[in-house]
Each structure stands twice: as C-alpha cells, then as structure tokens.
Design goal:
The protein is of the alpha/beta class. It has a single domain, classed as NAD(P)-binding Rossmann-like Domain (Rossmann fold, 3-Layer(aba) Sandwich), CATH 3.40.50.720. It is built from 9 helices and 7 strands, in the order E-H-E-H-E-H-E-H-E-H-H-E-H-H-H-E. The chain has a 7-stranded parallel beta sheet with strand order 3-2-1-4-5-6-7, sandwiched between helices. Helix 1 packs across helix 9 and helix 4 runs parallel beside helix 6. It starts with 6 loop residues before the first strand and ends in a 6-residue tail after the last strand. It binds nicotinamide-adenine-dinucleotide. Nicotinamide-adenine-dinucleotide binds next to helix 1, strand 2, helix 4 and helix 7.
C-alpha cells in the first residue's frame, strides 16, 4: 500500500522519541494519529503543528493508554474516521524510579500499567482490525534496561523486559495473519526522560557507551519506520537494539 494511504497510530507522540517517530512517518506522507498524556497540551500541539505544516493529515488525543475501555473506544473511532489501521507504535512510557528496597506498590503499578499494560491494551484493540484486513505492523518500544537491568528501575526494567516477551508471543500468534510484531530497544537517548537524570547517572551511562555519546530520537525513529516498511516484511518477533553499543 502506498505510504500516503497508511494509517499510523503512535502512542506518546507529543515529544521525545514519539514525536521523532511521527515526523519520520510524516516524511512519507502517512496519516498519523498520536496519543499523549501530558498535564498540558503544549507539546502535543507543537507536534501536531509540525505535522500539519508538512501537509500531513494528523490528529491527536489526550488519553491514558492504561485504560482498557478508553483505548478500545479510541481505536474504534480511528478506524471509523480513517477507514483503516496499518501501523501501531507502542511508544508511551514513564519512569517511577526508586531503589527496590524503597519502591512502593504504587510506583510498581504505575510503571507496569503504562509501559506494559498500555502496550497490551493498544495491541489488543488494534489487532482486531488488523486481523480483518490481514495486514498490520506492531512496533513496541522496549529499552536496553529490559535486557540488562538498572539500579533504581526494577519496575521499569520489568515492564520493558515484558515488552520483549509480549512482542515475541504475539509475533508467533499473528504471523499467519499478515501481522508482524517487533520491539525496538533504545539505549540512552537524548529526551526529557534522560535530561532529568542526575549528572552522576548520566556520566555513568556515557562511560559505558562504546560510541561515547547519547543517541538522538531520530536514530530510534529511523529503525521504527524501517520495521514498518515493505523492506522488513520477513522480520517478526525481533528486538532491535539502538544503543551505540551499550549492550551487544
Ligand atoms: N529516552 C531514553 O533514553 C529511552 C531509552 C529507552 C527506552 N525509552 C522508551 O522510549 C519511549 C519514549 O521515551 P521518551 O524518552 O521519548 O519519553 P518522553 O517522556 O519524552 O515522552 C513520553 C511520551 O509518553 C506519553 N505518555 C506518558 N504516559 C502516558 C499514558 N499514561 N498514556 C499515554 N501516553 C503517555 C507522554 O505524553 C509522552 O508523549 C518510552 O517508552 C521509553 O520508556 C526511552
């Protein structure tokens, strides 16, 4: 299908990696719907304007991906309005860092609800339509931390490791339905999420990256875009690491 006809849903598209993903798909003229859950609409409006300035048919909605019912209704609306759904990018994510000894039940639940249950909710709602059209691409953003763990991030690491297992399982189930599912695991990327890290933690990570620099959101977006392209038609159930060599 020509790119300009594809309908792409990106969760967490207001800023950071999600915004870069929206803009990467926009370069090909795709139709884009992105979700966000920021306290205000400033970043989302900015992304929307960037897309519309490029002549892209785009909309956004403030919606918590951890709400199963809201997500289900949202996807129904998208399919009704855009008459299809071709690509889902599960990108929404939060951190609720604390050392394990001090981690509260609430911190655990919040990270798991947004990062892992959110991906389940969106994939579940999207797949219903993708199965009918016998095609679809699901790309979920994991993290290097899901592979190697991290001090202060037991909840986040569990959610991101969960994304890998989830992706591989649905990839197996959906392979004969024309739907691929892959994960992208970024390392240390230059976004608000990492800009807020204490300098000591930043330096610790930087020292372990063979390329000696943080990654840019666009470098993650490029891989996501490619996984959704025709060139990746025989790739499913994979975790692609984008981390400057931090984990090999
Ligand atoms: N920045 C990094 O170094 C890095 C590394 C590895 C993985 N990741 C992952 O990449 C993804 C994007 O990270 P980022 O750094 O761009 O983050 P960010 O904080 O810049 O953006 C997060 C996005 O998620 C949205 N979001 C948050 N809670 C939500 C909810 N409940 N429902 C819907 N949307 C919600 C926000 O509105 C925002 O659009 C996340 O899944 C993150 O875990 C980031």
């Amino acid at each position: 299908m020509p790119e300009s006809k594809r309908v792409v849903v990106v969760t967490g598209g207001s800023k950071g990696i999600g915004r870069a993903i929206c803009l990467r798909f926009a370069r090909e003229g795709a139709r884009i719907v992105f979700l966000h859950y920021d306290p205000d609409d400033v970043a989302a409006d900015e992304t929307l304007k960037l897309l519309q300035d490029r002549g892209i048919e785009a909309t956004t909605k403030k919606l918590d991906v951890s709400s199963f019912a809201d997500v289900e209704e949202f996807f129904r609306e998208v399919v009704e309005e855009f008459q299809g759904l071709d690509v889902l990018v599960n990108n929404s994510g939060i951190t609720r860092d604390a050392l394990f000894l001090r981690m509260s039940e609430d911190q655990w639940d919040q990270a798991l609800s947004v990062n892992l249950k959110g991906a389940f909710n969106c994939a579940k709602a999207a797949v219903r339509f993708m199965v009918k059209q016998r095609s679809g691409r699901i790309i979920s953003i994991s993290s290097v931390v899901g592979q190697i763990g991290n001090i202060g991030q037991a909840n986040y690491a569990a959610s991101k490791a969960g994304i890998m297992g989830f992706t591989k399982s649905i990839a197996r189930e959906l392979a004969t339905r024309g739907i691929t599912a892959n994960a992208v695991a970024p390392g240390f990327i230059n976004t608000e999420m990492t800009r807020n890290l204490p300098e000591k933690a930043r330096d610790f990570f930087l020292n372990q990256i063979p390329m000696g620099r943080v990654g840019e959101p666009e470098e993650v977006a490029e891989v996501v875009y490619w996984l959704a392209s025709e060139g990746a038609s025989y790739i499913t159930g994979q975790v692609i690491h984008v981390n400057g060599g931090l984990y090999m």
